[in-house]
């Protein structure tokens, strides 16, 4: 993999600049993809943009930027998007700054001031000819300034192409259809690629990079889009009462394992959900949904006995394990529900007994 440092003037950067809104933004004679279709929206506020331009007129160095050279000779901006867009916004007259004591847009500058701006040199690292893993390793360790790229944004840069562009179009816009139908269940921001990452995690069962490597050259993301719709439709059908605790659950994993079941009834599930929400022993309400499908109590984080309750039970037993009858120090014992929570037992003093670790483990494994 070749990584080389280049000096590129603003004059060259803004040459051929075009902002086609959702169709993308290009510069550098049309060769630099500043913001691929439906990538992250612009996040700098006006004051931050002005500070970038002020730094240029003061001759202060901006932090180094990073580009990736594609196989066709074009470039994609990996890091420095906000600074680049601030420069271009000033160039096309969208913002104004004070120059020599007067508020000026680019068109109001003198010829000398325009040249000062256009001749300012940017430091750009360009990466090319690397393997996917080399690029990922480099992208992850470079000293990215400002707002760091997410892991999925880094992956998108490595596996760029029509398939990734299609994923961004479907899943990476704040008002995209994926957001409209899935916002109640999805965590994170679409424009920071959270939806893209989540769907790929689900469909690949956690092996995102291998999945992207295998599908990089697909023409579109129709397969992933249909999968996402199937997951959301399944959740809507099975859990008819929407609750805030449903947001951020790994629904795709649950769909992968239980989406084929025909014995699950929405009315029965809703009845159980209401009961568990009211159960004070269930401390992780979000875990109710995976619990109902898997039967694993670990999702519920059943309330543990307090140290006071443990000590009281230990003293009542005089330090003897309720199962094996041997005497132990309290540090060698664990609190246990006499009547298991699954059978209606609660985390109350009368339902607490102290067992040695061996007996408690043996009981738990039954």
Please tag this protein with its features.
366 residues, two-stranded antiparallel sheet, 3 domains, elongated, DNA Binding (I), subunit A, seven-stranded mixed beta sheet, single chain, alpha+beta, 11 strands
Q: Number of helix segments?
A: 16
Please provide the ordered H/E string of secondary-structure elements. EHEEEHEEHEEHEHHHHHHHHHHHEEH
Q: What global shape is seen?
A: elongated
Strands across the major sheet, in which order?
A: 1-9-5-6-4-3-2
General description of the model:
The chain is α+β, with helices and mostly antiparallel strands. The protein folds into 3 domains: 2-149, no CATH class; 150-263, no CATH class; 307-364, DNA Binding (I), subunit A (Orthogonal Bundle), CATH 1.10.30.50. Helix content is 42%, strand content 14%. The chain contains 16 helices and 11 strands. It has a 7-stranded mixed sheet with strand order 1-9-5-6-4-3-2, sandwiched between helices. A hairpin with a 4-residue loop joins β3 and β4 (32-35). α2 packs across α3. The longest helix has 17 residues, at 222-238. The model has no long low-confidence stretch (mean pLDDT 90).
Quick overview of this protein structure:
With 366 residues, the protein is of the alpha+beta class.
Describe how the helices and strands are arranged.
Elements: E1 2-9, H1 10-14, E2 18-19, E3 25-27, E4 32-35, H2 46-57, E5 65-69, E6 75-79, H3 81-91, E7 97-99, E8 102-104, H4 111-118, E9 121-128, H5 132-141, H6 151-158, H7 162-171, H8 177-182, H9 194-204, H10 208-215, H11 222-238, H12 251-258, H13 266-277, H14 288-294, H15 307-317, E10 333-337, E11 352-356, H16 357-364
Parallel strand pairs: 4-6, 5-9
Antiparallel strand pairs: 1-9, 2-3, 3-4, 5-6, 7-8, 10-11
Helix pairs in contact: 2-3, 5-6, 9-10, 9-12
């Amino acid at each position: 993999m070749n990584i080389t440092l280049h000096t590129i003037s603003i004059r060259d950067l803004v040459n051929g600049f075009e902002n086609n809104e959702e169709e993308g933004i290009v510069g550098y004679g049309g060769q630099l993809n500043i913001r691929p279709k439906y990538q992250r929206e612009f996040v700098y506020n006006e004051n931050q943009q002005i500070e970038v331009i002020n730094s240029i007129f003061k001759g202060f160095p901006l932090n180094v930027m990073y580009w990736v050279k594609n196989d066709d000779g074009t470039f994609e901006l990996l890091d420095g998007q906000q600074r680049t867009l601030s420069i271009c916004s000033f160039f096309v007259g969208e913002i104004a700054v004070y120059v020599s004591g007067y508020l000026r847009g680019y068109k109001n500058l003198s010829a000398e001031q325009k040249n000062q701006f256009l001749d300012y040199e940017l430091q750009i690292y360009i990466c090319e000819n690397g393997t996917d893993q080399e690029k990922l390793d480099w992208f992850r360790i470079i000293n990215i300034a400002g707002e760091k790229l997410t892991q999925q944004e880094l992956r998108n840069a490595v596996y760029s192409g029509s398939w990734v562009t299609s994923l961004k179009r479907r899943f990476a816009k704040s008002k995209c259809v994926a957001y409209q139908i899935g916002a109640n269940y999805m965590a994170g921001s679409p424009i920071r690629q959270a939806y893209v990452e989540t769907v790929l995690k689900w469909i690949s069962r956690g092996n995102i990079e291998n999945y992207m490597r295998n599908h990089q050259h697909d023409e579109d993301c129709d397969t992933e889009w249909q999968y996402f719709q199937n997951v959301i439709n399944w959740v809507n059908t099975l859990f008819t009462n929407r609750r805030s605790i449903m947001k951020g659950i790994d629904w795709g994993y649950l769909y992968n394992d239980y989406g084929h079941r025909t014995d699950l009834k929405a009315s029965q599930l809703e009845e159980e959900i209401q009961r568990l929400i009211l159960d004070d022993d269930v401390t992780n309400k979000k875990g109710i949904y995976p619990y109902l499908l898997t039967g694993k109590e670990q999702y519920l984080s059943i309330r543990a006995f307090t140290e006071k309750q443990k000590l009281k039970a230990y003293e009542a037993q005089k330090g003897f394990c309720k199962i094996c009858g041997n005497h132990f120090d309290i540090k060698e014992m664990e609190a246990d529900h006499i009547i298991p929570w699954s059978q209606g037992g609660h985390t109350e003093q009368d339902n607490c007994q102290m067992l040695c670790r061996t007996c408690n483990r043996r009981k738990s494994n039954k």
